[in-house]
Amino acid sequence: MTACMIFLFFSAIAVYFTVSCQHPGVEELSGALLPLNYGFSRAFGISYQAATWLTLPAVYGTAFGFMYDYSRQLTAMSKSGLMPLKVPFQDRFPDAVLYAYLLLGSLLGFVVMLFVYYLHLLTIRDLFLICILGGYLVYICVLISYIIFQTRYSSLHREFRSPFGISGAVVGILIFSVSFFSAVALQKDTVSSVFLAIVLIIVSIYYFVYARYHQKFSDDEQKALFSAYIINGKHGTIIPKYEVVYLTRSSYSI
Amino acid sequence: MGPYFGFVVGYCEAVLNIMYVASSVIPFGQMLTIVTALPSSYEPLYWLFFFATSLYIHAQRGRLFWGVNAAIAIISIIILVLYVLSTLQYVDINQYALPYKREVSTGNQVMAAFAGLPVSSWFYVGVEMLPLAAFESNRVS
Question: What is this structure's pTM?
Fold first, then answer.
């Protein structure tokens, strides 16, 4: 995992440097569909069309990878009683939940794409901004939870310890907060922030009307709760459930 | 805020992931239009192709799923390294990167930099799933 992080860091810098410092220049490339094509065409002497083949695996792979992400995410929420759908046969087929939410996430994505393509209610740029706004909120909350766990459950076993500690988390919160402000207030329009706000209002209504009365600790959360309960027992405090949610998430997200 | 806090974060992450897939598959369709030189009206079929193949591989899980992941990663890394190494000779900061700064002298450069922050966030998106992927990929039977 650490090797992957380091590779991502250096490869991102290398690509940013090489792409932005050659023809046709940063101004044109910032809005290009395939910014690497110019370099491929020049370096290998191939057409723009042929160069497109070289970007296809990465684009397929990135979308493919995020399907993995939402299938696990929605399944975890379902096991905590936070999803509106009750998947049938999950007692006999434990994987049914995962498959159901993999399909549901894909269907939702496909519907959004139809809205973009046929109805023009959203643009690809809007989709990206919605995606990144949701991401900023997640990153800020995960970093806050990191600080809570570093201070309140410092002796909890962790697979990975950030070398930057709490100060790194604070810097991250600042960066993502400024970025969040930029995505909301400094863009050409507010379609993406309005869309995300509407989604959050709808799911909030769902939560206060239904989910709050049906939420439960999943098996993973119970395991995490048990560890944290023992550790926190020394301090004589009770762990709020939202911290347990992060404790569970922290086992794979921090 | 209690559990509601975790609930909202969960849905935000779901929005992030689903929107990311949507915003990647549309360009995937546009790219296939470029390479096939067919009308762009076929793009929804390319989306269906993507979802059909991806869902099948995801549903198989285990060795096939992680094998495809590894294959895509290796191919992408090879292409990326080839790109960086073969285009280094064309890098010219003064000619291609700096004119942007020189032309924008209206005093809004700081605001322009802040407005561009979401684009730079492409570097971070999805990295939070790396620990889970590393965990699961080490336990493939």
Answer: 0.85
